[in-house]
């Protein structure tokens, strides 16, 4: 993600903190209970305990994700009514592998009406608890088995009170912006990047609309006066990176490096004026490949939406941009191009290699800012050193406001910026700059290439990055990373003892 400079951070507000504590039942506990009571009373006990919102223990979003299962695939089906102020009819089918015995399971789903839930083809009871949909199957699910959950529901593009994000209403339809914690405003899911899955997305829309989603097309079916478009991902994806565009759009195709299919989605009426920007993508992909290795997915493209989001977003294989970024003459050409590269580089850093927890966000944004700045330097002569020196000056105040890069502060109520503060953008790119100064350019570049290759299609942690950097450089970097990623104050910049951070307690210039 990248905030556009004119907009004051239109980010989802922090969800109200829940008070109930997470509760899980381990198989051992279940067995121990069974020794003391008959099977019947175990079921009664399970049924009588109150449903509670659960999470996977993310420090910043405690109630995102759910324990007890891994999702392998989502099949999302949306029917667009031809108006973006009315709910879509939707069916979400989840294939998951249970990792513990479950007498019930939680999905994240907070906005939309549930009409029915089936588990393995049988109707199941369900209730709401906080932002969770708590499903109780007829028979408890056994650890180490496949289960299929089908939820018929509505998906409401009109935001609930205080919950921005999820569907974005555009001038001619809808797009999606789920980062960090808004996919469950759109569809029931295990809404945490640690549980990536394959996606099939079907969209039925009336004549005159075009629907596009992540991945490659897998079918177009016309029925009466509507069309159903099907898309399928070829690589696992985090829920926060889902994209569905419905609009009066054109899909523009071209070849990228090595025949990579590039397809962009633009308002049909603006296709001509936007074409010079679209034409830049293949060279940008080639530039990124020259830096970090092969593009990690089956396709790429930009979605230029007529909407004021206040940010651009790296939705997997199809990044979301505000159309105005390309038509507003106030933005210099080099700047717009560097923003395109920012979202493109996220396909490697953040999408293919996604964060294990949201505290690892700096690995996304630090790297995207890095390649954004490097591109601006190489293509437009905008000095990275100058940018990093300026970042150094601001770094202490960024850390004071948002926390150190790898231990960001939680989203605060009323702060729409959520966790997307400067500490994880230029503040984190600054830590990468320090690392390059410390281990040298050649090891740093090898680290970057190895990182995206090693963790491709997976999730990774800050500790994984630290370990790989130590291995590649043959150095003990423990103290270096502790200071740069977790320190309250910015450490001295290696090789630049003259760089000074401005004390956040004093005004600049004093
Ligand atoms: Zn970003």
UniProtKB/TrEMBL annotation:
Keywords: Aminopeptidase, Hydrolase, Metal-binding, Metalloprotease, Protease, Zinc. It catalyses: Release of an N-terminal amino acid, Xaa-|-Yaa- from a peptide, amide or arylamide. Xaa is preferably Ala, but may be most amino acids including Pro (slow action). When a terminal hydrophobic residue is followed by a prolyl residue, the two may be released as an intact Xaa-Pro dipeptide. It is an enzyme of class 3 (hydrolase). Residues 179-239 form the Aminopeptidase N-like N-terminal domain. Residues 284-484 form the Peptidase M1 membrane alanine aminopeptidase domain. InterPro entries: Aminopeptidase_N-like_N, Aminopeptidase_N-like_N_sf, Peptidase_M1, Peptidase_M1_aminopeptidases, Peptidase_M1_dom, Peptidase_M4/M1_CTD_sf. One of its GO terms (molecular function) is aminopeptidase activity. Signal peptide: none annotated. The keyword Ion transport does not apply. Residues 1-24 have a biased composition (Low complexity). Its cofactor is Zn(2+). Residues 1-27 are annotated as: Disordered. The keyword Cytoplasm does not apply. Its EC number is 3.4.11.2. Belongs to the peptidase M1 family. This is Aminopeptidase N. It comes from Streptomyces pseudovenezuelae.
